[in-house]
Amino acid sequence: MAKGGIVAGCLAPHPPHLVYAENPEQNEPVSEGGWEQLRWGYERLRESLKDVDYDVIVILSPHWQTYVGTHFIGVEKCSSKSVDPVFPNLFRFNYDLTIDVELAKAIHDQAKSEGMSVKMMTNPDFRVDYGTIVSCHMVRPEWDKPIVSISSNRSLSYYSVEVMQEMMIELGKSTAKAIEESGKKCLLIASNSLSHRHFVTETNPPEDMSKEHITSHAMHLWDMRMIEMMREGKSQQIINEMPEFCEQAIAETDGGALTWLLSAMGVPSEPAILHGYGTIIGTGNAIMEWPCRNWGA
Amino acid sequence: MSGEIVKSLIVPAHPHPVLCPEKNEGWQRVRDAYDDARRQIEESDADLIIVYSTLWPSVIGHQIQADPNPEWVMVDADFHDLGSIHYSLRIDTEFAEAWNQANINRGLESRTVSYHGFPVDVGSVVALELLNPDNRIPAVICSTNVYSNRAETTVLAKACMDVVKAQGKKAVAVSVMSLSNRMFTEPIEPHEDRIHSLKDDEWNRKILEFLSEGRLEDVGQLSRTIHDQIRVKKVVAFKPMWWLSAMNDNRNDLTGEVLAYEPIHGAGAAVVVLNPESNGTGDKEYDEDDVDFYGGDRNVLDSDKDAEPKQPINSGPALYDPVEGANAVNTSKAPKPVGAYPHARREGDLIYLSGVGPRQPGDNSIPGGPIKDSNGNPLNYDIKAQTRAVVDNIARILEEAGSSLDKVIDVTSFLVDMDRDFSGYNEVWAETLGKVGPTRTTLAIRALPTPIAVEMKVIAKA
Ligand SMILES: [Fe+2]
């Protein structure tokens, strides 16, 4: 069997506003659009990935939060309605997706053999989190690729950003190893925003772009700094500065997705492409791509 | 008709007591305690269960469930292997909408949610499944805002109590929460369960000692310390005690009973019942701000000018101390006059009251909300709440004069919007002064000096 590999990695933020603004048939609410800068960014990402050959999307989302280790969906056919508990007015999405249980189990087993706390999720009533759905929809609206869905282990809550990163670096390595052994070509997605301080009021309509901006200058500076480092291939520096970034920008990278992604790709020194940046209800969101090649070991 | 909290509960959130109590003696004891609490609710005259769940975080202010019948299958994010809980809840939508409006009246960002498939959080599902399995009593569920502080949480409770009182509810207030919330980060066998650390256990026991003594406000005031000591910073902090204490008028002399305290996967799971009967221990020590309106930094989308509290506390004309003339009757328990006159005047066997509105003594706030903002833009307001507040103010002035509401003999009422408000005003009248039987005249007028919709002029026997 040929070696599998990671063919590309993406930072693909998941605010439900983006799907809401796209008006796909699966989503119940209807919008007048909005957040075009980011949605055009996703368009450029999709265009860039168009000719990339991959079998599976492997995604880590901070909205499946687990405190007892890292979990993997182990149910092949998942179909239900995902309603965002925070923005139910924007996101009520009827999904029907396929999980690559075999690869999920392989990553699970690899992580377990490395001593990590992991668990397969086999309850058929489980609803897939909206972060996973939004990012997957924006990256691949055809929904024709199976998915490996990895939970966000909230080890940060128990320990520190440093410990969280140690665990995510391990998980990233296990992910890369299992992918390699699987013979599958994978697209990796870290599903998260950058700075993450929200407005606590909503405009009417929510897509009123005259009120959309970053919550504070400090958040902007941090977002630009992170984007610059990604564009310059300074992955190790991103990992080094992650504790300060998480603390000072209340960043959604605290869920571990970005660290996991960078680790799985071997902490790349190659530059990432910025496809778009914009704010959503005050939070900072960048769409980045580490383009096609054999990352990792 | 006056509403009240007939019982307050602190209950744990994890699904084990629903799905597998038999696997661990402690989980079974939590289940038994839940069943005991359910029986206590059934034996009370409760007609509403109000749930504040720490497992439903919100960003846009607070969210209140307003789907009359939320139904779905709940699977816990961590404990999915224990099984699923099919829920079908009965929500008091009228209360939910009124609470939402009351939140807005008190300056809070708030909205109701009513969407098919909305994922009701595990804490609310577990609590209602065990406390109200047959939906005999309608419920209302409120989120926890991830950014809210004590002031915001306190005002949320006060807004809730505005509606409990206005609707005459006999309500059970439920905080769904763990005490210490540090779980084991590895899977464990049921028989291995214990409180995660000795420190957590000691803090939990101290909290429960306070609660068993009915010292709810003390626990509220310790919330920040407790959060620092034994709470893993998950989505929300140790806020529910602020809410529960404010729901109980920040009292420290309730009657408390701890029905269970056990570990669930390392976290502290307690079932505590607090009854409003005073335990007789007397004074509370109360040293936090008593906030009635929220005017914090939450309106971040608005310009500075718009960011004023939605109901400025001292709006309207200048206030006067009541005039101490001959035979004057004045009290600090009634709102300050807007001119140089007394609250009332005794002449022979009769007491003549100056016109009484709904403004509250002290902060000058208007129950049910003002009829317009400081720019003159009309606001939605609750005429029934305003009318009740008028009657309460009349009662307080009469009591100061040694009289009482049942000695009122003649009333002239003034409404600024007869078409909109007459029926609501009339309803409250029937429940209150209508039962006493004074003569009554109701007039429509163009305006009153403050942004209120109703005022009454009263003559009573001394
Ligand atoms: Fe998010």
Highest-level CATH class of the largest domain in chain B: Alpha Beta
**Helix-strand category of chain A:** alpha/beta
**Mind telling me which CATH architecture of the largest domain in chain B this is?**
3-Layer(aba) Sandwich
* N→C terminal distance of chain B: 25 Å
Radius of gyration of chain B: 24 Å
Morphology of chain A? globular
**What string, H for helix and E for strand, traces the elements of chain A in order?**
EHHEEEEHEHEHHEHHHEE
* Count of domains of chain B: 2
Amount of helix of chain A: 25-40%
The main pleated sheet of chain A reads as:
6 strands, mixed
Structure annotation, total helices of chain A: 9
**Distance N terminus to C terminus of chain A?**
17 Å
User: Which term fits the overall shape of chain B?
Assistant: elongated
Bound molecules: fe (ii) ion
Overall strand count of chain B: 16
Amount of helix of chain B: 25-40%
Would you tell me the structural class of the helices and strands of chain B?
alpha/beta
What's the count of strands of chain A?
Answer: 10
Strand content of chain B: 15-25%
Find the CATH superfamily of chain A: LigB-like
How would you describe the overall organization of this protein?
The complex is a heterodimer of chains A (297) and B (462). Chain A has helices at residues 16-22, 36-49, 101-113, 130-139, 155-158, 161-182, 217-231, 235-248, 257-264; strands at 5-11, 56-66, 70-73, 77-83, 92-98, 118-121, 147-153, 185-190, 273-280, 283-290. Chain A is globular and about 55 Å long. The longest helix of chain A is centred in the middle third of the chain and has 22 residues, at 161-182. Chain A has a single domain, classed as Protocatechuate 4,5-dioxygenase, Chain B. Chain A has a six-stranded mixed sheet, with helices on both faces. In chain A, helix 3 crosses helix 6 (161-182). With 297 residues, chain A is α/β, with parallel strands linked by helices. By secondary structure, chain B is an alpha/beta fold. Chain B has helices at residues 16-19, 25-43, 93-105, 122-131, 150-166, 198-212, 216-221, 223-230, 240-247, 383-400, 418-431, 433-436; strands spanning 4-11, 48-58, 62-65, 71-74, 85-88, 110-113, 139-145, 170-176, 255-264, 267-275, 328-329, 344-347, 350-353, 408-415, 439-444, 454-461. In chain B, the strands form four sheets. In chain B, strands 7-2-8-1-10-9 form a six-stranded mixed sheet, sandwiched between helices. A six-stranded mixed sheet of chain B has the order 11-12-13-16-14-15, with helices on one face. In chain B, helix 3 (93-105) packs across helix 5 (150-166). The two termini of chain B are 25 Å apart. The relative contact order of chain B is 0.13. Classes of the chains: A alpha/beta (297), B alpha/beta (462). The A-B interface holds A 64-69, 71, 80-81, 83, 85-89, 92, 117, 119, 121-123, 125-127, 151, 153-155, 157-158, 198-203, 211, 215, 281-282 and B 56-61, 73, 75, 77-81, 83-84, 109, 113, 115-119, 121, 143, 145, 147, 182-187, 232-234, 265, 298-302. Residues 14, 62-63, 131, 252 of chain A line the site of fe (ii) ion (FE2).
